[in-house]
């Protein structure tokens, strides 16, 4: 059985044909692209270097439709081609389904596959660029195993469209059909861009004979889950999740037993337990001492959870059911989770009370959270199937608690709230590996809705794209002027920021807030801690992401107060770089008095 096969896909400049080579650059196929010849297939795969070589496969686009037909063989030979359908399954997401009989598969009947656009998995463990549209993964419809991945190179090369990697060995015919179906998607998108540009729509979509527009991008690879890489499956929790954490704050008092995923950026100072320090420091004042048993006050808090508080964690109806019903059931067997959800409910109640009763509920929140943390720390080295659901749930609750806890304003020192947000980012990163490990057990349980993710397509507005390009240009300028400037770290951070801002238009959940924090390099976190100007500029853009959750009581006015603080500490050299986020947050009329 063969291992993974790598193919390179190139486009010709004038005819918009395609050439396909093997990993060693041997020429394998030429794809003839026909735009105007009646009754001729739109795409014809020739087993050679030009259109005179034997025909192996063809594809026809359906008129006035998003569907297509394809098949193996030469259509000039009667009854030689068995046509299959490439069916568009969604108007809002890239999902194209096709089938074929597999000769080297236990199931001999037609097997179904689906092409989906991806922003989180690339060939040979690379990371697809946010600047490129045509990044796809092919999944087995039944098992959802990733069968193949196409990573676009159009953002950095004029003639190379990208690379295709196929992970299964279903025979040469299967490889040919994978090639022609993915090229069908690439060509369909290219024609749509050309049509939009020629009709005056689409905003700078191409021209020049339909050559796709090229935007600069970054090749920096994203950390890859080792287990998923070995199985050739996409790590579902890596793309978006409730919240995952690692820690950079302080020296370890104990060492986590969980290994760092291959390819990640480990920080030698990270431990899970120490990252929880910020939570223990919240509310360091006189608080009620709780007994180990629950009481009427706790009953009120549980009623608040089931009636209201759970909604702040729910992404949709299915996750709402888990948080409302199943999490409290799990908490009965795991006291740390029970204390955790009661602490968040207490904060929820405190915000609605008058000045006389508010301190009582705030005190209950701190007391429950302190007990929860004490019990939780004991389990960090022993995550298993019996406690995974509770640990996963508590991990999300404790981050929401930290966002929601009222932080006293310090008007005389704007760096205080900046540092407070940094500590929350540290917390989000702090137990990343814990929640990763716990999520593995959720996928086959009644909590699986919490681990299920959607692979959305980032959509950037023109003004956001221009602002981010300006940010990249400023980074390069700083690097050219100062050899100690961490150009690569900043570029990687801006690329991840670009993806997160693009997802705001399609994903309206709080997962984006944690996703960016999780993917940061430790060096960038250090630069924010040192109040480096460009690092603070980037953090202002993150405030736009935070602002998407301002309607939720748990996130309050973090976006407003942190962006104002950064504006105050930046000098006139750096302020022009935050015009876009400040305008997005405060409107066109924002000023120095913001």
TrEMBL record:
Which residues lie within the region annotated Disordered?
Answer: 192-215, 239-269
Tell me where on the tree of life, at the top rank, the source sits.
Eukaryota
One Pfam family, short name: Fungal_trans_2
Q: Which GO terms describe its molecular function?
A: DNA binding; DNA-binding transcription activator activity, RNA polymerase II-specific; zinc ion binding
Asked whether the UniProt record includes Transcription regulation among its keywords, one would answer yes
InterPro entries on file: Fun_TF, Sterol_Uptake_Regulator, Zn2-C6_fun-type_DNA-bd_sf, Zn2Cys6_DnaBD
Keyword Aminoacyl-tRNA synthetase among UniProt keywords? no
Q: Which UniProt keywords apply?
A: DNA-binding, Nucleus, Transcription, Transcription regulation
Specify residue ranges for compositional bias: Gly residues: 199-211
- Residue spans with biased composition (Polar residues)? 253-269
- What PANTHER family has UniProt attached to this entry? STEROL UPTAKE CONTROL PROTEIN 2
The name under which this protein is listed is Zn(2)-C6 fungal-type domain-containing protein
Q: Which organism is it from?
A: Aspergillus glaucus CBS 516.65
């Amino acid at each position: 059985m063969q291992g993974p096969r790598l193919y390179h896909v190139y486009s010709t400049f004038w005819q918009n044909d395609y050439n396909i080579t093997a990993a060693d650059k041997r020429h394998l196929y030429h794809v003839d692209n026909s735009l105007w010849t009646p009754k001729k297939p739109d795409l014809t795969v020739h087993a050679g270097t030009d259109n005179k070589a034997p025909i192996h496969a063809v594809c026809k686009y359906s008129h006035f439709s998003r569907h297509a037909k394809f098949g193996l063989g030469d259509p000039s030979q009667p009854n030689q081609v068995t046509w299959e359908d490439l069916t568009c399954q969604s108007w809002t997401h890239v999902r194209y389904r096709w089938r074929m009989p597999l000769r080297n598969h236990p199931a001999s009947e037609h097997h179904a596959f689906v092409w989906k656009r991806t922003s989180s998995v690339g060939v040979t463990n690379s990371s697809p660029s946010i600047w490129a549209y045509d990044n796809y993964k092919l999944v087995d419809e039944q098992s959802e195993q990733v069968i193949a991945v196409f990573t676009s190179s159009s953002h950095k090369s004029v003639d190379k469209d990208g690379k295709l990697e196929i992970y299964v060995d279903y025979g040469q015919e299967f490889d040919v059909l994978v090639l022609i179906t993915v090229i069908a998607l690439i060509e369909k998108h290219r024609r749509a861009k050309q049509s939009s540009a020629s009709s005056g729509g689409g905003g700078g979509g191409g021209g020049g004979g339909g050559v796709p527009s090229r935007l600069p991008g970054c090749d920096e690879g994203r950390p890859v889950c080792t287990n998923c890489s070995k199985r050739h499956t996409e790590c579902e929790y890596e793309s978006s999740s409730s919240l995952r954490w690692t820690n950079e704050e302080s020296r370890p008092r104990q060492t986590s037993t969980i290994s760092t995923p291959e390819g990640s950026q480990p920080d030698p100072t990270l431990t899970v337990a120490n990252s929880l320090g910020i939570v223990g420091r919240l509310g360091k004042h006189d608080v009620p001492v709780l007994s180990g048993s629950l009481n009427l006050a706790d009953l009120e808090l549980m009623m608040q959870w089931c009636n209201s508080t759970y909604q702040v964690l729910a992404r949709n109806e299915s996750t709402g059911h888990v948080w409302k019903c199943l999490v409290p059931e799990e908490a009965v067997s795991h006291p740390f989770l029970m204390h955790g959800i009661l602490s968040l409910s207490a904060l929820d109640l405190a915000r609605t009370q008058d000045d006389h009763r508010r301190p009582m509920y705030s005190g209950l929140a701190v007391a429950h959270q302190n007990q929860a943390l004490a019990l939780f720390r004991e389990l960090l080295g022993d995550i298993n199937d019996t406690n995974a659901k509770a640990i996963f749930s508590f991990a999300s609750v404790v981050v929401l608690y930290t966002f929601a806890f009222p932080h006293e304003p310090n008007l005389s020192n704007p760096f205080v709230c900046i540092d407070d947000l940094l500590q929350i980012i540290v917390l989000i990163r702090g137990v990343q590996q814990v929640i990763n490990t716990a999520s593995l057990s959720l996928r086959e349980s009644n909590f699986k809705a919490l681990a299920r993710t959607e692979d959305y397509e980032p959509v950037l507005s023109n003004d956001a794209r221009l602002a981010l390009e300006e940010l990249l240009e400023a980074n390069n300028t700083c690097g050219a002027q100062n050899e100690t400037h961490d150009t690569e770290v900043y570029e990687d951070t801006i690329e991840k920021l670009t993806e997160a801002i693009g997802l705001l238009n399609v994903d309206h959940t709080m997962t984006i807030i944690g996703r960016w924090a999780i993917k940061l390099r430790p060096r960038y976190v250090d630069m924010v801690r040192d109040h480096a100007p460009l690092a603070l500029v980037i953090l202002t853009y993150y405030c736009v992401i935070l602002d998407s959750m301002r309607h939720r009581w748990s996130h309050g006015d973090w976006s407003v107060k942190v962006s104002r603080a950064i504006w105050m500490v930046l000098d006139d050299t750096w302020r022009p770089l935050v015009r876009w986020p400040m305008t997005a947050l405060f409107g066109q009329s924002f000023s120095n008095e913001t």
